[in-house]
User: What shape does this take?
Amino acid sequence: MAENTPLLKVEHLSKDFPAESGFLASRLAKKVSAVNDVSFEIHAGETFGLVGESGCGKSTTGRTIMRLTQPTGGHVYFEGKDVAAMSKRELKEMRRNMQFIFQDPYASLNPRMTIGEIVSEPMTIHGVGTKEERMETVRELLDVVGLNPEHINRYPHEFSGGQRQRVGIARAFALKPKLIICDEPVSALDVSIQAQVLNLLKDLQQRYGTAYLFIAHDLSVVQHISDRVAVMYLGKMVEVSDWKTLYAEPHHPYTQSLLSAVPVPDPDIQKSRKRIILAGDPPSPIDPPTGCRFHTRCPIAQAKCSSDVPEFREVKPGHFCACHFAEPFPIKESSIEL
Amino acid sequence: MIYPVHQQPGAAAHADAVAAEHGGAAVAGAKSRTLWGDAFNRLKKNKLAIAAVVWIIFVVIVAATADLWVPQTLGDPTATASDNMAGMSRLAPSLEHPFGTDTLGRDVLSRVIYGARISLVVGLVSTGISTLIGLVMGALAAYYGGIWDTIIMRLADMFLAFPYTLFVIMMIAVIGNGIQNVFIAIGILGWPQIARVFRSAILSVKENDYVDAARAMGASDVRIITRHIFPNSVASIVVYATMNIGGAILTESALSYLGMGVVPPDPSWGTLIQDGQQYLQTQPWLMILPGLAILSTVLAFTLLGDGLRDALDVKMKDA
Assistant: This one.
């Protein structure tokens, strides 16, 4: 692997789901375009945040990278190798280095296995160590994630949501992977527990040098942990940048409206801030709008937007945006109606 | 929402919060319990189910030990006419013959006990056969889906579209009667229901994140099915199979009643009813007592199944 090869490279990734399926469904059935032409790179040890509202395809992106679902277009390269073209053996080897943390800590742990069995399972599957060595590693991991190693023989139903998520994190780190895809790992948790789990993820990253693809619908969560942030809307990536630039100078009107919805912990500033409120709901991904997918709700949309798909272009070094009118703060104060 | 992350001055507050979380769990669960252990504890509280278990164990013990004491005290259940003295025919229940005697002078209780052996073995073996076939078929259909699902489930629909008893009779007519063929016929024809129940259980379990988690770890299909899907979907099969034992006992009785099951002189609850029915007006116990044996045993398996369903329901677990 060359020095400058990114750990993960996603090129023009698309994923369509059939909207109707079954024995007698028409071959011409409509499809849901969940992810459309998404490209990005993740380098070793960095955290790449992926935000967007519910149903915009961010989880599908994560699952497709992991090959939990097959992509319908584009490529995913992990350490330079095409994930879709991997043999069973190569895929297993890749999964040793790429792990997943799930959103729902209640559904992601098998209720009939003990904590020890759950956390040691990745090591069992990949034949790491003897049974005693694995249990020793499990104890260490439980200690690292802030759980009592004595609880190794307990069952998931005996733990709280935050503790279960820690078990899921311990499991993801069992093989010391190079990349962990975190699919909204804190959104099912209480706010106070969210902070603890985020801090834990940060600590673990420093300790093991793991890269994260961090999926969330909450900009403040992503801001707390990410080096770079990508914003998705209706299956498309609309803006990518390092988080400081993105928060300071959002180029895409959608990013800007999202940022305006994040409360500021200062009542005086909060009172004087303008909120950009988008009209309507996101359109259905079964029949996405032509041109720019955001034009139906965009406060600065023009005729061009409904016909031409905006190019995902580099507006500044390392800062990409898919908007015909991309510029810092494209929405002028005067154009905002409240 | 404001995240308290920023306000937390480093690790101290973090550690405190974790400790608080620990404390909560320590109080909640002092010692580890298994889900099956919990289920057993819930079952113990269900009086009807416990009564059913006691009855089933009683029947099993009596049937299993029959050779040791029944022929000596009650008489040979399969004796033929020439072995018996005159004047023993169709005696009313007495201390010596608690269920009376039949036309050939054989003790009816002795025949009911030996009939229990056949009924229990038929119930267990044929349910075992249908469960085995049903599990494999249901697992294939649900896990691989697509064309497998279509073929297997349409085949199951075809089996279910035939009237069950007629289908069994047809099969016995083809392969001949006798106890082994009864196992085979009931066993083979019982798989579609098991396959359906198991398929739907798997389909719902398969959607859980822990199955994806296992796949993301690189687990093989066999491991995913045996370690993750099977243990979480088997509860419904345990329930269904328990109830199915009762159903198989009924079917065997029906077959024997029609003369297509057990070959005389071996006793079966079905043949006992058939023998007794012509004396319903004069010696009603000849039919009623074997009938009660079927009723109580089938009812016991059904009640046990009901009890198991309640006990094994994970959702009843305190969340």
The longest helix of chain B spans residues 108-144. Chain B touches chain A through 44 residues (CB under 8 Å). The radius of gyration of chain B is 27 Å.
